[in-house]
Amino acid sequence: MKIWTVANQKGGVGKTTTTVSVADALAGLGYRVLLMDLDPQASLTCYMQLDPDQVENTSYDLFNKPERIRPVDTGFEGLHIVGASMALANVEKRSSSIDGKGLVLKRWLQQHAQAYDYVLIDTPPALGMMMINALAACDHLLVPVQTDFLALKGLERMMKVLGMLAVSGAEIPHTVIATMFDKRTNASRRTYQFLKNQYKTRIWPGVIPVDTKFREASRLGVPPSFLFAQSHGIVAYQKLTRDLLPDDLLR
Amino acid sequence: MKIWTVANQKGGVGKTTTTVSVADALAGLGYRVLLMDLDPQASLTCYMQLDPDQVENTSYDLFNKPERIRPVDTGFEGLHIVGASMALANVEKRSSSIDGKGLVLKRWLQQHAQAYDYVLIDTPPALGMMMINALAACDHLLVPVQTDFLALKGLERMMKVLGMLAVSGAEIPHTVIATMFDKRTNASRRTYQFLKNQYKTRIWPGVIPVDTKFREASRLGVPPSFLFAQSHGIVAYQKLTRDLLPDDLLR
Ligand SMILES: Nc1ncnc2c1ncn2[C@@H]1O[C@H](COP(=O)(O)OP(=O)(O)OP(=O)(O)O)[C@@H](O)[C@H]1O
Ligand SMILES: Nc1ncnc2c1ncn2[C@@H]1O[C@H](COP(=O)(O)OP(=O)(O)OP(=O)(O)O)[C@@H](O)[C@H]1O
Ligand SMILES: [Mg+2]
Ligand SMILES: [Mg+2]
């Protein structure tokens, strides 16, 4: 079992889209994948047509009764999910003392998710209890970043957090992924160039282009490759996924 | 002085872009505008070429020494800013007791911002102390929402929060604004139709189209109308701003 977390404190950079697209590509290669939604916004849960107000046995129970959590079959080959419920937002507020609560997810996955080849964890756009759990649990971190100026500062902060964790002995291997790349605009091209200079081997050498099919797929509630397998954004995520697999040696 | 807050718990829906664009349009009409950055990500601060790690007298001081806060001239006619510093993220963590801290911003603006015609407040993508302050202080709330499926659930939650506030006597007049509308895709058109049916008079009857110039403007650190006045996204925000002004009677 390998655990991949998708995180970036900046909002709207494509975390949920990356989680679904990489999981979709892994399932397409025959792997059994567990999706884990740790975002109180529950985008991933909604994407998979579950209702966060109704769904039972969610990631909220990690902090309550972990033994109650049951993955749900999404109906798509090789993809199961543990959804998020709205109640997750309360965990953040109550958790003034983080001691020992940072490893709840890691422990649950080690005990209950061994049947899966990959676990993909979606996180909220904030550095809080969910993010800490997701960083502590993962083998590899994927950091999507939009190729635009406003997203650069957020990435800097994310990297500072990783630097602090590394100093305390928790080095997390990670890959920065340039998303929503729009080859028509200067902003995208220049920002991507800056990212490549700055992050060198830690950034995936490709880009995920702007592709309107992602919105379409999320509206219809299907993994992107099911309806739009040839679309350039979806093909790019499949290439990313192949590049991340161990035999290609992580960048 | 009128205070307009821009908020939505969902990330990446265009809050910062809406704040800058509406402020830009108001300054273009000759009004004196104060931008207020309450987001620890400090996108608005970075957009205006201030460094959140260096900037002094920021919105962080609201919870510390409010009398220290000084608006900074952005260098653009009619636009001043109170920036955000990274330290703002600490306020959220420390503030387990919200009592009385929800009105800090409202009080500061009443005492120190009377020289401005409009105050535009940018908020983080989360329901926390900053959002509560921004909702408590405002005369009108602008809620940008991307015309895509994943953003609908986030909007529902935002509306539930407003409903709860209204029940407790704090009715907040608000306008939902459809952003990043892409007329080429089904997802955008259908989502927009759904929003119009659902929110009727509370949604602005126009749309803000997808426009690559916004990224360009944020990279160059200039208000959108300075370089791209004719661009269709920027013209749409100017139309929105005129529709929001009192003589047009708010929807
Ligand atoms: N490559 C792409 N091209 C075009 N649209 C995209 C692309 N990737 C994501 N999107 C769209 O951008 C929006 C934001 O993406 P997404 O919700 O995945 O971001 P996020 O980082 O998870 O946001 P949040 O911070 O709210 O969790 C969605 O509407 C999604 O469909
Ligand atoms: N109408 C539009 N057309 C194209 N791009 C847009 C439009 N509005 C905003 N953007 C771009 O989308 C990205 C997200 O916008 P923005 O940062 O304003 O969202 P936000 O809601 O403030 O995000 P956060 O939740 O992180 O604060 C930015 O790169 C911005 O330039
Ligand atoms: Mg998300
Ligand atoms: Mg913002």
Account of the protein in words:
The first copy, chain A, has a 7-stranded mixed sheet with strand order 3-4-2-5-1-6-7, with helices on both faces. In chain A, β6, α6 and β7 (about 175-180) form a beta-alpha-beta unit. In chain A, α1 packs across α10 (about 230-245). The model of chain A has no long low-confidence stretch (mean pLDDT about 90). Chain A is globular, with a radius of gyration of 17 Å. The first copy, chain A, contains 10 helices and 7 strands. Chain A has helices spanning about 15-30, 45, 90-95, 105-110, 130-135, 150-165, 185-200, 215-220, 225-230, 230-245, and strands spanning about 1-5, 35, 70-75, 80, 120, 140-145, 175-180. Chain A has about 250 residues and is of the alpha/beta class. The structure holds adenosine-5'-triphosphate (ATP) (2 copies) and magnesium ion (2 copies).
Give the bound compounds: adenosine-5'-triphosphate, magnesium ion
N-to-C span of chain A = 20 Å
Relative helix content of chain A: 40-55%
Class from secondary-structure proportions of chain A: alpha/beta
Strand order of the largest sheet of chain A: 3-4-2-5-1-6-7
Major sheet attributes of chain A: 7 strands, mixed
The unreliable regions of chain A are none
Number of helices of chain A: 10
Please state the average pLDDT score of chain A.
90
The best one-word shape of chain A is: globular
Oligomer: homodimer
Order of helices and strands of chain A: EHEHEEHHEHEHEHHHH
Strand content of chain A: 5-15%
Biggest interchain interface, per-side counts: A-B, 41 and 41 residues
| Topology, number of strands of chain A | 7
